[in-house]
Design a protein that fits this description.
Layout (H helix, E strand, L loop, with lengths): L6 H11 L10 H4 L8 E2 L19 E3 L3 E12 L5 E7 L7 E5 L4 E7 L7 E4 L15 E2 L18 E2 L1 E6 L6 E7 L5 H6 L3 E7 L1 H4 L9 E9 L30 E2 L2 E4 L2 E2 L2 E6 L1 E8 L6 E7 L4 E2 L1 E6 L2 E9 L2 E3 L4 E7 L8 E6 L8 E10 L24 E12 L2 E6 L11 E3 L4 E8 L3 E5 L4 E6 L14 E4 L4 E7 L5 E7 L2 H5 L3 E6 L1
């Protein structure tokens, strides 16, 4: 069973953030300050390399097959130059292999667990049958596992020994998905140790648009980490074996931030590019860190970021940004036109939401002139759903906040912590619903199975970056938002939850039953 946070621990959350008043709940005045991220930062105990020295790696690609096998295993790799680091991986690399699929072409991925703990795989953003969605108690047990399985108090849990096959129909709009561990109570440390990878869905219509492609399309998984003195990944688990007792040490209850920014597993990398347009498929795979990305030349000039897609695929029309906020689990499809800068220039991607070393993210060095046949069409897609408020058959309200349960505290949705044997929301297949969400601190809220549109923030228009079809909405401190969705695809048990991974592990999930 999940252990509750003590009152002292929850007050520690607020004390670290300046968000909890003497009565234990957030004050409006404190929330109005809106810190850049919710959480506390770990400091590395090894020397860190200078930024923009390590080449940007690209994960291996799996494509063209109906079935893949991925072994989850521990490896030693060099993330910081000259420093060996133990990682938990999909297929021996961090990130894991990027799977490329075609829309409507079903694939099966067999995951074999050779790690010392149970795992669960969730394809984030996938329109996936419930039995393959990676419910947190549907564990894949390692060989010889003898510890108590956290899913055993869930009568609907389906466990597998060593190997499980996940089937993904992929009958959905082309987009960047990602897969990661989703084990109940232990998602955060498992993802921190390396269990994350990307999955691209493509189709003919998107490929006919003339967008940058080939070597000028770059999948970018951004994640912050910290390193211990022995080169291992530092993480403040109460139980570092991740076998029995979930949770993190007291200063990090609101979220774990690292002091090293990795892109595709490399610290502050650099990539050589042509003077041409590039398509950047950006994923924030950090546990808790938020970014506000901006492209800056060394002379201080800024390069526009042209957004063409969101979590669930292409926008209707492009949206131009000077900077782009991205919360944990969000994805953005962006065009950067390096043809607008001189050969020899360096373009840095920086995080306006941070200072010091974590302000830097990655850099591009424009090294040569080249022909560029790509374009950005005025119209990108005409298949976005246009749900109207009048179509909603019901409206629901959910509050995401820290609160008291009995003699303890935890992260709550609607005043309750997660319980796998309880149904929180029941809806019918095909129903359109309007959800009103409100947060105390940063909560990136993710809905499984269904994409949604953001209708409003704080009673006002959505942000420019809210365009398109989403599956994760970034709620800022004290903020409310309205989303609208249609529950189609499959019946079964799904989830919605905060994607601050520490919040998720400490109770901020809820069950959604589609009948």
């Amino acid at each position: 069973m999940r252990e509750r946070m003590s009152r002292r621990q929850v007050l520690g959350i607020g004390g670290a953030l300046g968000l909890v008043a003497a009565g234990g709940l957030s004050s409006a005045a404190a929330l109005s300050r809106r810190p850049a991220s919710t959480g506390a930062e770990l400091r590395s105990a090894v020397p860190l390399p200078p930024a923009f020295q390590v080449p940007l790696p690209l994960p291996p690609v799996l494509s063209g097959a109906d079935r893949y096998e991925i072994v989850q295993r521990e490896v030693t790799a060099e993330i910081l130059p000259g420093v060996p680091t133990r990682l938990w991986t999909y297929g021996g690399t961090f990130p894991g292999p990027t799977i490329e699929s075609r829309r409507g072409h079903a694939i099966t991925v067999a995951h074999r667990n050779e790690l010392p703990v149970p795992t669960v795989v969730h394809l984030h953003g996938g329109r996936t049958p419930a039995e393959s969605d990676g419910y947190p108690t549907d564990l894949v047990l390692p060989s010889g596992w003898e510890h108590h399985a956290h899913g055993m108090h869930d009568p609907r849990a389906v466990t597998s020994n060593v190997t499980r096959e996940y089937t993904f129909p992929l009958d959905q709009r082309p987009t960047l998905l990602w897969y990661h561990d989703h084990r109940m109570d232990f998602t955060a440390p498992a993802v921190w140790r390396g269990l994350a990878g990307m999955h691209l869905v493509r189709d003919d219509a998107e490929e006919s648009l003339g967008l940058p492609s080939g070597v000028r399309e770059l999948p970018l998984l951004i994640a912050d980490r910290a390193f211990a003195a022995d080169g291992s990944l530092a993480y403040p688990s109460i139980d570092p074996s991740l076998t029995m007792r979930p949770g993190v040490e007291e200063p990090y209850l609101a979220g774990v931030l690292g002091d090293v920014v990795l892109v595709n597993g490399a610290p502050w990398p650099v990539h050589e590019v042509d003077a041409a347009r590039y398509r950047l498929r950006i994923l924030n795979a950090s546990n808790a860190r938020h970014y506000d990305l901006e492209a800056v030349l060394d002379d201080g000039r800024r390069l526009d970021l042209v957004q063409i897609g969101a979590d669930q695929g292409l926008l209707s029309t492009p949206v131009t940004h000077r900077h782009l906020p991205i919360a944990p689990a969000e994805r953005y499809d962006v065009i950067a036109d390096f043809g607008r800068v001189a050969v020899g220039s360096r373009v840095r991607i920086v995080n306006r939401a941070s200072t010091g070393r974590t302000r830097d993210v990655l850099a591009f060095h424009v090294v040569r002139k080249a022909a560029d046949p790509s374009r950005i069409p005025d119209v990108l897609s005409d298949d976005l759903p246009r749900w109207q408020r009048s179509e909603a058959v019901r409206t629901r309200d959910f509050a995401f906040r820290a609160g008291q349960m009995g003699d303890g505290h935890c992260w709550l949705i609607g005043g309750r912590p997660f319980a796998p044997d309880r149904t929180d929301v029941t809806t019918r297949l095909g129903d359109v619903e309007l959800w009103r969400l409100v947060a105390d601190v940063h909560h990136p809220v993710h809905l499984h199975l269904a994409g949604f549109r953001i209708l409003s923030r704080g009673g006002r228009e959505p942000l420019p970056s809210d365009a398109g079809l989403k599956d994760t909405v970034s709620l800022r401190p004290g903020e409310s938002a309205e989303i609208i969705t249609r529950f189609d695809g499959y019946r079964g048990r799904y989830l919605f939850h905060c994607h601050n991974a520490e919040h998720e592990d400490m109770g901020m999930m809820a069950n959604l039953e589609i009948t």
